[in-house]
Amino acid sequence: LFCTVFFSLWSLVYALFWHIFLIQYCLSVCMLLGGLINVFFIIRYFFFFFFQAEDGIRDAQESRGLGDVYKRQALSSNPLGSESADVLVKTFVRSDEIKSLDLWSCNLQDHGGIRLSGLIAASTSLTELNLAENGIEDSGASAIAKAIMHPSKSLCVLDLTGNQIGNAGATELIEAAEINRAITSVVLQGNADLNRVLHRKLEGMLAGRRHKGGDPTASTSERM
Fold it and tell me: Is 187 helix (H, G, I), strand (E, B) or coil?
């Protein structure tokens, strides 16, 4: 009787052990297959979008590859402050890959605009810069105008919407845009102290330039 009970219990424990082992084995196999599937899709996603953007962004709406992310930096709505402008300049000034920098509403203030003029002056690749709603005043606008005045600079699209730029700063920006014909868009909407005549003069000049040259960046300023 004792032997019968012992072997019965042993058989039960043995069967239970193998059932648990089989269940764990099946779960492990399923997890492994799930992991391999995830790795496959990650690799597929990486290669598709990275190499799409590697030699230029072919689809600005769909491309999200690492090359795309690096070329188009979006730091909007971050309270960076004017002190961060020096860091931004040091970070991007030596890059020959950065194409677009979005600093909308980053609290850069007038000092930050002055500092970022150094990036505009030194960069050989930056084509689009969004400095909308940063509290930039005439001093910042003047520094930016001096930076874009040289015809060899790469910048084409500049968004200064919603700042505090007045007639003096706008006049210097217009003069700089007249000299540098690579500039195709300077957006000054929402600057309350700005004379509408100056605004219309700038818009008319650049609209004619875009129409004449058929510049592809003409619609880009609308997306910034």
Answer: strand
